[in-house]
Automatic annotation (TrEMBL):
The keyword Transmembrane helix applies. It comes from Kyrpidia spormannii. The chain crosses the membrane at residues 31-53, 65-87. The keyword Transmembrane helix applies. This is DUF485 domain-containing protein. It holds the Pfam family DUF485. Keywords: Membrane, Transmembrane, Transmembrane helix. InterPro entries: DUF485 (IPR007436).
């Protein structure tokens, strides 16, 4: 099967249709959907609590801070942790993608 050179549009379309590559795409989508859902729920929880549980968020915890302030700060920590987890996950997916494309490149030669 002659698909042209590695990097050509028809070669990438062929690789994209491979079941192994589709599995990598599914894994990436599953991780991103879960991470996005978690973060959106966590993010929107601040607005829900600020409307319905103001006294809870206003509870002092020391040094002039309250639970609401700490919750806002925790969102920065959560997004950094999610980014770190994604980078670790993406490096594994990059390796799987590299294996699939190298295997196909070997079949092309």
């Amino acid at each position: 099967m002659k698909l042209g050179t590695k990097g050509s549009d028809e070669w990438w379309e062929h690789v994209y249709r491979l079941p192994a590559f589709q599995d990598v795409v599914r894994q990436r989508k599953r991780f991103l959907a879960g991470a996005l859902t978690f973060f959106l729920v966590y993010f929107l929880l601040l607005y829900i609590l600020s409307g319905w549980a103001r006294t809870f968020l206003a509870t002092p915890v020391g040094m002039g801070m309250n639970i609401g302030f700490l919750f806002v700060l925790s969102q920065f920590i959560v997004i950094w942790v999610l980014c770190w987890l994604y980078l670790r996950w993406a490096s594994k997916l990059d390796e799987l993608t590299r294996e699939v494309t190298e295997k196909e490149r070997g079949a092309l030669i």
